[in-house]
Design goal:
GO biological process, one term: plant-type hypersensitive response
Strand content: 15-25%
Helix content: 25-40%
Pfam families: LRR_14 (PF23598), NB-ARC (PF00931), WHD_DRP (PF23559)
Largest sheet: 17 strands, parallel
Shape: globular
Low-confidence stretches: 1-10
CATH topology of the largest domain: Leucine-rich repeat, LRR (right-handed beta-alpha superhelix)
Mean pLDDT: 87
GO cellular component, one term: cytoplasm
InterPro entries: Apaf_helical, Disease_R_plants, LRR_dom_sf, LRR_R13L4/SHOC2-like, NB-ARC, P-loop_NTPase, WH-like_DNA-bd_sf, WHD_DRP
Structural class: alpha/beta
CATH class of the largest domain: Alpha Beta
CATH architecture of the largest domain: Alpha-Beta Horseshoe
Distance between the termini: 37 Å
Keywords: ATP-binding, Cytoplasm, Hypersensitive response, Leucine-rich repeat, Nucleotide-binding, Plant defense, Repeat
C-alpha cells in the first residue's frame, strides 16, 4: 500500500475584490465586537470565501484565537460549542463530559480577554446566534463574528454588517472555467462554445467548477463540447437556481458507473460536517464498490476514486494530513441534496431522520426526556438494502426497526442529554440478519458485547462503542470481517486469542489500550497476514511482543503503547524491536514508564511517518531516525527526547517534509550548512526553553510554513529573522 500525495487543484473560486473587502471588514480598527455576514444564494461561494479569508495570513496574525463551526438548518447547540472549543489545543477531552451550561461557560472563559474570530457557517436564521451569544464576550478588543447565510439576517432581526456576494460576470465565469480545464488558454476552436457553456452557469462558482470537472475529462473536440452545451440548453430555464442543479445532475450522469455508487454514498453522511476519508474508504470497500486489481491495493484504488471525485469538484477537501494526503472531505449542500434525491430515485439507500415516520411524534410524546421509554405500536420495517439513521439514540433503539433485506446499517446519532447512557441493541441480530456493514460507533452498547452479533456471518465491516472490557471469542465466527473498530469507554480491552483466526481482517482499531490474550497466540508468522492497520495494542519488551509482531507481517500502519517491562533487568527495558515489521510505513508509539536504558534504536526501514512520545531518549540517539531514508513526517512530542541540545548531523533527514517538536526541554538547536533539504513545514509548540531556530533554515528551498505556539520570545524573534531572510512566500504563524 503506497502512501501517495495527491495533486489537488486549489484554483481560487472567489473574486479578489470580495476577499479584500471581507478582510478589511474583519481587520479594521473598530474595537466593538462586530458581526459580519456574507449573504448569497446556494452555490455562489459563501463558504469558499469565508474559508479563504479565515486562512489568510493577515487574518491569522490579527486574531489570537480563531474557530470555525458549521451551523446548517438542523443543528444542536452542544455540537456548536464543542466544535468551537475543539480549536483550543490546551483543552482536554473532559469537555465532552460537560453539560451544555458548563460548555457555554468554558467557551466564555476561553475567549475572555482574547481577540477572537468565530466563523458561523451556513446560518439559516438568528436562532443559533441567540443560543450562543452569551458565550461571546465583548471586551472591546476588535473581536469579530463572521457568518455565512442564504438569507438576509437583518430580516431575522439580527444586527450585522452584511456583505452580499455578486454572481460572476460572463467574463469572470469564462476565465475560471478556462483555468480549471486548461490551466491556461483554451484552443481557438473551443472558444465560442466554451464561453456559451460558461454563460449558462449564471455566474455561480459551484456550477462553473462542476461543469469544468466534466469538460476536463471529456474529449477536447468541438462536437463533444457542443453536445454538452445543447444538453444544458435543453435542461435550463432562465433563473439562477435551476442551472446549478441541472449542471450538478449532468455532472453526475457523466460519472463512470464505479464512481456513481461512491458519490451517492457520501451524500448520506451528515450535512456540513467533515467526513473522515479513512472511514468512508473502508465503507466503500466493505460495500463492494472497489473492485480488486492486480496492480493496486484496495485502499489505493479507493483513494484514486476519491481523487477523481475531487478533481470533478463534486467533493471538496476540508483537511489534509501532514503528508499532504486528504484527511477529511465535505460535500456542498446542493450536491448532497442531489445525492439523496438520486439515491431515493434509484433505490440505492435510505436516510432516516426525525422527520420520517414513526419518529415525527417521538419528541412530542416523550417530551425530550432520555428516560421516557416511548415505543411506537407498530415497529417499522424497511425494504432498502442500505439504511442510514440520523436519530437520537433512544429513538433508534425504542423504535426497534427491522430490515429483512438490509445489507448495511449505519447510525449517526444526534445529540442526547446523556451521551454515555448504555443501550440494549440485541434486537439488531434478529431484525437485520443479512448485514454486511454495521456501524454503531455513535451509541454506547454497554459493558458486554451485543448478543447475536456473532451470528451475522456476512459482516465485512463492524464498528461498536461501549464500556467494554473484553471482546468474546465468538467474534471469530465473523470470518469475513475485514474492518473491526471498537470505540472503548474503559481503560483497556482484552482481545481473545481467537482473533488470530480472523485471517480476513485488514483494519483492527481500538481507541484505548488493547491487550492480547496470548494463551493460543499466533500459530504462524503470517497469522494476520492481511492486516494493514492496527491500533492501539499495549506492548512491553520481551518474547510476548515478538510473538505478536511475528503475526503481523504485512502491517503498514501501527499506533501502539509501549509499557515498562516488569522485569527490571537491563536487557528487558529497552526500546522495542520493531524491525520485524518490514512493510510498516506509519508508526505512532507512546511510552509509559521510567526512562529506558539507552540501547540501540531500531526502526522498520520503510517508515514514512513517525510519532514518538514520552520516551525521554538522549539526543545522541536521534541519528537512528535521521538515517531512515523514506521518512517524510516526524513528530517528537511530550519528552520524546530529553536534553538541552540537539546538534543535527549532515546527511540526515534527507526526505523529511514535516517536523513537529512539542513539549520538549530542548534549549540549543544547531544545524549543518544544508539542514533538512526537503522540509516544507516546521511546527514548534510548548518548547519554552528553546533559544532559537537555526538560522540555516532560511536557506531551505522548499520551506513553506513555520508555526510557533507557546514558545519563548527569543524563539519567535529567530523565526522573524528567518522570515526576513528566507524564501519568498514563507508563511510564519505565531500563536
Amino acid at each position: 500500500m503506497q502512501a501517495r500525495t495527491p495533486k489537488i487543484d486549489e484554483t481560487v473560486v472567489c473574486l479578489g475584490d470580495q476577499m479584500k473587502d471581507t478582510i478589511d471588514r474583519l481587520t479594521r480598527r473598530s474595537l466593538e465586537l462586530d458581526i459580519i455576514s456574507i449573504i448569497g444564494m446556494p452555490g455562489i461561494g459563501k463558504t469558499t470565501l469565508a474559508r479563504k479569508v479565515y486562512n489568510d495570513l493577515r487574518v491569522e496574525r490579527c486574531f489570537y484565537f480563531r474557530a470555525w463551526c458549521s451551523v446548517s438548518q438542523e443543528y444542536h447547540k452542544r455540537d456548536l460549542l464543542l466544535e468551537i472549543l475543539s480549536n483550543d489545543t490546551g483543552l482536554k477531552d473532559g469537555i465532552h463530559q460537560m453539560n451544555d451550561e458548563d460548555l457555554e461557560m468554558k467557551l466564555y472563559q476561553c475567549l475572555k480577554n482574547r481577540k477572537y474570530l468565530i466563523v458561523m457557517d451556513d446560518v439559516w436564521d438568528a436562532t443559533a446566534w441567540r443560543e450562543l451569544q452569551r458565550a461571546f464576550p465583548n471586551d472591546k478588543n476588535g473581536s469579530r463574528i463572521l457568518m455565512t447565510s442564504r438569507v438576509s439576517l437583518e430580516e431575522a432581526e439580527l444586527k450585522t454588517n452584511p456583505y452580499s456576494l455578486r454572481p460572476f460576470s460572463n467574463d469572470e465565469s469564462w476565465k475560471l472555467l478556462q483555468m480549471k480545464i486548461f490551466h491556461g488558454d483554451c484552443p481557438e476552436e473551443l472558444l465560442e462554445v466554451g464561453k456559451e457553456i460558461a454563460e449558462k452557469c449564471k455566474g455561480l462558482p459551484l456550477a462553473i467548477v462542476a461543469i469544468a470537472g466534466l469538460l476536463e475529462r471529456a474529449e477536447k473536440k468541438l462536437k463533444v463540447w457542443k453536445t454538452i452545451a445543447e444538453s444544458l440548453s435543453s435542461r435550463i430555464v432562465d433563473d439562477r437556481q435551476t442551472p446549478c442543479m441541472e449542471i450538478l445532475l449532468l455532472s453526475y450522469e457523466h460519472l463512470p458507473d464505479h464512481l456513481k455508487a461512491c458519490f451517492l454514498y457520501i451524500g448520506a453522511f451528515l450535512e456540513d460536517r467533515d467526513i473522515p476519508v479513512r472511514k468512508f474508504i473502508r465503507l466503500w470497500i466493505a460495500e463492494g464498490f472497489i473492485q480488486k486489481s492486480k496492480l493496486e491495493g484496495l485502499e489505493d484504488l479507493a483513494e484514486d476514486y476519491l481523487m477523481d471525485l475531487i478533481g470533478r469538484s463534486l467533493v471538496t477537501v476540508s483537511r489534509k494530513r501532514t503528508t499532504g494526503q486528504v484527511k477529511a472531505c465535505r460535500i456542498h449542500d446542493l450536491l448532497r441534496q442531489m445525492c439523496l434525491s438520486k439515491a431515493k430515485e434509484e433505490n440505492f439507500l435510505q436516510l432516516i431522520t426525525r422527520y420520517d415516520e414513526p419518529y415525527t411524534v417521538f419528541d412530542d410524546v416523550d417530551g425530550g426526556s432520555d428516560f421516557y421509554e416511548y415505543r411506537p405500536p407498530n415497529p417499522v420495517t424497511y425494504e432498502k438494502h442500505r439504511l442510514f439513521f440520523n436519530l437520537k439514540r433512544k429513538h433508534f433503539v425504542n423504535s426497534s426497526p427491522s430490515g429483512p433485506q438490509t445489507r448495511s446499517l449505519i447510525l449517526f446519532a444526534t445529540t442526547d442529554t446523556n451521551r454515555r447512557r448504555p443501550y440494549d441493541i440485541s434486537f439488531i441480530s434478529h431484525h437485520f440478519k443479512l448485514l454486511r456493514v454495521l456501524d454503531l460507533e455513535s451509541i454506547n452498547i454497554g459493558m458486554s458485547f451485543p448478543k447475536g452479533i456473532e451470528l451475522l456471518i456476512q459482516l465485512s465491516y463492524l464498528a461498536v462503542s461501549g464500556d467494554l472490557e473484553s471482546i468474546p471469542p465468538s467474534i471469530a465466527n465473523l470470518w469475513k470481517l475485514e474492518t473491526f473498530i471498537v470505540k472503548g469507554l474503559t481503560d483497556k480491552i482484552l482481545l481473545p486469542s481467537t482473533i488470530w483466526c480472523m485471517t480476513s481482517l485488514r483494519h483492527l482499531h481500538v481507541n484505548n489500550q488493547v491487550v492480547f490474550d496470548l494463551e493460543d497466540g499466533p500459530e504462524s508468522s503470517s497469522a494476520l497476514a492481511n492486516l494493514v492497520s492496527l491500533s492501539s495494542p499495549s506492548f512491553s519488551y520481551g518474547k510476548d511482543t515478538e510473538k505478536i509482531l511475528s503475526g503481523l507481517s504485512n502491517l503498514h500502519k501501527l499506533k501502539c503503547i509501549f509499557k515498562e517491562s516488569w522485569d527490571s533487568s537491563e536487557n528487558c527495558n529497552q526500546f522495542p524491536g520493531l524491525e520485524l515489521l518490514t512493510e510498516l510505513e506509519s508508526l505512532k508509539i507512546f511510552y509509559l514508564g521510567k526512562a529506558l536504558h539507552p540501547g540501540e534504536l531500531s526502526f522498520p526501514v520503510n517508515l514514512k511517518k513517525l510519532t514518538l512520545s514520552n520516551f525521554r531518549l538522549p539526543w545522541d540517539r536521534i541519528s537512528a531516525i535521521g538515517g531512515l531514508e523514506q521518512l517524510e513526517v516526524l513528530n517528537l512530542v511530550s519528552r520524546a527526547f530529553e536534553g538541552s541540545e540537539w546538534e543535527m548531523n549532515e546527511g540526515e533527514f534527507l526526505k523529511l517534509k514535516f517536523l513537529k517538536l512539542d513539549s520538549l526541554n530542548i534549549a540549543r538547536w544547531t544545524a549543518s550548512a544544508e539542514p533538512l533539504p526537503n522540509l516544507e513545514h516546521l511546527a514548534l509548540r510548548n518548547c519554552k526553553d528553546l533559544e532559537e531556530v537555526p538560522f540555516e533554515f532560511a536557506d531551505i528551498p522548499n520551506l513553506q510554513k513555520i508555526e510557533v505556539q507557546f514558545c519563548g520570545q527569543s524563539t519567535e524573534e529567530s523565526v522573524r529573522k528567518i522570515e526576513e531572510e528566507g524564501i519568498e512566500g514563507l508563511k510564519i504563524v505565531i500563536h
